[in-house]
Amino acid sequence: MTHADGTAPELPHDQGADPRPPAQRRRDTEHRLTHDIDVWVASASADGPPYLVPLSFHWDGETLLMATAADCPTGRNLAATRAARLALGHTRDVSMIEGDVEVLEIDTLPQERGDRFTAHTGFDPRTMTAPYRWFRVSPRRIQAWREVNEMPGRELMRHGRWLV
Fold first, then answer.
1. Which of 2-11, 45-54, 122-131, 133-142 is the least confident region?
2. CATH 3.40.350.10 fits 22-162, yes or no
3. Residue 117, class by beta-carbon neighbours within 10 Å (0-12 exposed, 13-18 middle, 19+ buried)?
4. CB 134 within 8 A of CB 75
5. Would you report the helix, strand and coil content of the chain in percent, each value rounded to 5?
6. How many C-beta atoms lie closer than 10 Å to residue 118's C-beta?
7. CA-to-CA distance for 73 and 48, rounded, in angstroms?
């Protein structure tokens, strides 16, 4: 297939590539966790629609720290269910994270942890006029894949423990 001008469409960089071994997928996922600034956050409540929003985050090597307004749908959902599903990357190179959510009032997080979040994201929820909360997500399950050939072996973490 070609464009109207006769040029070939650009293909994703990994299309047709051999599947990455699980150890490489873990390294790639940990790189995203360390260097990405935003993550898609899916949350739901029993009595309302599910929500999908991007939130800034900071990874400390074990947990993702996020913040949002306490009274927004995502903040209410995370506080009520204490569960979230997160997505890093794009559809052709995604890391999916299911985790348990700990809710922290904005003034209960140690100052240095909040400072690391702010330095990484460029956003300081402690200065917002609307009440914000911290949401700390402990991953229970992590999956990573690019193309269909990486679907087998996509699970990198189960029950909070790395498999590779």
1. 2-11
2. no
3. buried
4. no
5. 25, 40, 40
6. 17
7. 9
